Amino acid sequence: MLRRIYGVETEYGITFSLRGQRRLSPDEVSRFLFRKVVAWGRSSNVFLENGSRLYLDVGSHPEYATAECDSLEDLVAQDKAGESILRELVGYAQSQLSDEGIRGDIFLFKNNTDSTGNSYGCHENYCIERIEDLSRLENVFIPYLISRQIFTGAGKVVTNAKGTAYSMSQRAEHIWEAISSATTRSRPIINTRDEPHADPEKYRRLHVIVGDSNMSEFATYLKVGTAAVILAMIEDKFTELRDYSMASPINALRDISYDLWSKEPVKLANGRDLTALEIQEDLCERAEQFSDSHDLPPDQARAVRLWREVIEQYRSDPMGLADRVDWIAKLQIIERERERSGVELNDPKIALIDLLYHDTNFERGLFYRRASRGHFRQMVSEEQIVTASTTPPATTRAHMRGTFIQAAKLWRRDYTVDWVHLKLNDEMQRTVLLKDPFKSTDDRFQKLLASLERHG
Length: 456
Fold this sequence. Notes:
The protein is of the alpha+beta class. It has helices at about 25-35, 35-40, 70-100, 135-145, 150, 215-235, 250-260, 275-295, 300-315, 325-340, 350-355, 365-370, 380-390, 400-410, 445-455, and strands at about 5-10, 15-20, 20-25, 45, 55, 60-65, 105-110, 120-130, 155-160, 165, 175-180, 190, 205-210, 265, 275, 415, 420-425, 430-435. It folds into two domains: about 5-390, Creatine Kinase, Chain A, domain 2; about 400-455, no CATH class. It has 15 helices and 18 strands.
């Protein structure tokens, strides 16, 4: 499968404080945040006109799931549109709180850990072929995920029994298994719960929960783009791939996260020792060969070229990736502050930088303050993000879902939708089942759309 459907689910951290003192619990402030959503959707779990899903997750975390995408630019735009949609809700909730005389500010963070050590995720979903033998996923894809922290990590100052250290990944400390059907009790790298949201005889949905939430558009593009190519190589029966299985995947995940410059090798199950950089270099080389011999979609071919650029830059001067890789950008800010004020890594000033990098507010957020000065490589335009906030991707099933929601609202019709169903809640209960995520329209959908207008 070369053309592929993928999407990203992001859980956000939220707090409300006045001069550093928490005024409302996350649950209370989330209720204000979702007031507007509940008012029109009669629920805190809704699908939006751009085909995405917005809901309040366990632990009072606002969660945004992008619509199904088959283009990396669409995915990046949809992901950033999620920030924009939630930013608008924050503004509305802030005015509501002010009207009720509750002073303070709402902070919405696109990160993965809170101050009490809880972790919340950024999950990637990939539509893959219905393969029952998962050994190539275990031998290749999991080692890829473990070693890709080099360019996907969001960075985190971690204090534990060993002391305080900077790590590439926020999620590495919170993952406990390689493959499992659980998501919260024992978080795995890959979740195998079989919910394809498509024809189960053809597809399965690969649910990756090890990733960090990225502020950098480049990191999101490369994270999903390289994964898509690796999966295409795994699905291709004629592509030979090495067995990179690690002797202890979870220990390797954590060790690599703290090995910022990829100096220490991890032990593979076959007895070999390889660093994270060496694993990525080998996979990238094979992806280049695969790209040369297969007609990859242009954006995936571009992801392979960018992958090579990142590996070469990381090998020669890792800090040169501060315009593309979140953990390196954050480390640069931290090191400059330490040099300026002479503080240790465990100083409260550093903890504040660690947090404010992920603030989605344009004025406060350190990522956005740097981005406004042109310090980050953009992959999509502001216009694309604005469009993605209200318009679904045109080439996937999401087009039908978003168009149906827009039309139902326009004609004031009661409806129900999920990832695979479009339903009109009238006396006929007309329902269209969307089992093929690659199809952007069909006759049944067109008839349903026409019936909306006729009975409007």
